[in-house]
Amino acid sequence: MRIGVTVGLLHPAVWRDFAIEADQLGFESLWVPEHLVFTEDMARSPYPGGKPPVVPDAQLFDAPALLSAVAQATQNIKLGTYVYLFGLRHPFVSARAFATLDVLSGGRALVGVGAGWMKGEWDAVQLDFAGRGRRLDEALQVAKRLWTERVVTHHGEFYDFSGVYFEPKPVQKPHPPIIVGGTSKAALRRAARLGDGWVSMPGTLESLKPQLDLLNDLLRAEGRSRDSFQVTVSAFEMAGPEEIREWEALGVDRIIVRPYTRTSTAIDDLRRFAEEYGIRPGAD
């Protein structure tokens, strides 16, 4: 089982030190949250997990840029977004950001993406919130071509261009894994159709099993093999190391954990979790 860790809810001032410690302890991946802007009316948008976990004036960073800096201070840990609103930008911008991260990290980028839940964020950039799913689908298709083809021409619903070169290509081949987030059937279908994996919202064995069952059905319908598809769950309230076997029985490949409750003790909590769960460098 791969064990990743999120920096969500930590003060950004400790993200770099936290990432270095997670790398040295042997955690498989580090995941950072992403938004372009927050808006005053964000509480009116239906957040999938209930109340939005942040306040509107929380500090935001360009996630691939921040992870590129983290990459220079770490050696092995994979670096993922949890999740990047790929459709809010032109795919040239999104594809460039993750190609840069993958090159600078030596092939450690994980492209966690989602359609987004906050309508005001889409309104602020003057894009149609109702069309965000279709826009994301097309943006991902364009990015895959930019990452793998020498010259790209595309004529679609949202993007139209001819004869574009895109260099350098990412280190990972054919491209960094695209890990699609979301709880809706549309999001799960997107993961099965366009993604290299899926990442859940925070949940438990009981709450996430129906989504995992549906995902397996959708993968079969797409003719996709589970062997080449990464299933990631956010299990922030693990009952103990024995729970890992239960997740494995459900076909889960990676667990994202949050083994802290406050910034001031986060690194010590991370060390205790690693010891309890037997995480060590080179164990993956």
How would you explain this protein's 3D organization?
- The protein is of the alpha/beta class and 284 residues long.
- The chain has a single domain (2-276), classed as Luciferase-like domain (TIM Barrel, Alpha-Beta Barrel), CATH 3.20.20.
- 37% of the residues lie in helices and 17% in strands.
- It is built from nine helices and ten strands.
- The protein has helices at residues 15-25, 63-73, 91-104, 119-124, 132-148, 185-194, 205-221, 243-249, 266-276, and strands at residues 2-6, 29-32, 78-81, 109-113, 151-155, 160-165, 178-181, 197-202, 230-234, 254-257.
- The strands form two sheets. An eight-stranded parallel β-barrel has the order 1-2-3-4-7-8-9-10, surrounded by four helices. It has a two-stranded antiparallel ribbon with strand order 5-6.
- Helix 3 links the parallel strand 3 and strand 4 (109-113).
- Helix 1 runs parallel beside helix 9, helix 3 (91-104) crosses helix 5 (132-148) and helix 6 packs across helix 7 (205-221).
In CATH, the architecture is Alpha-Beta Barrel
- Integer average pLDDT: 94
Order of helices and strands: EHEHEHEHHEEEHEHEHEH
Number of strands: 10
Number of domains in the coordinates? 1
- Give the overall shape: globular
Quick description:
The protein is α/β, with parallel strands linked by helices and 284 residues long. It has 9 helices and 10 strands. The chain has helices spanning 15-25, 63-73, 91-104, 119-124, 132-148, 185-194, 205-221, 243-249, 266-276, and strands at residues 2-6, 29-32, 78-81, 109-113, 151-155, 160-165, 178-181, 197-202, 230-234, 254-257.
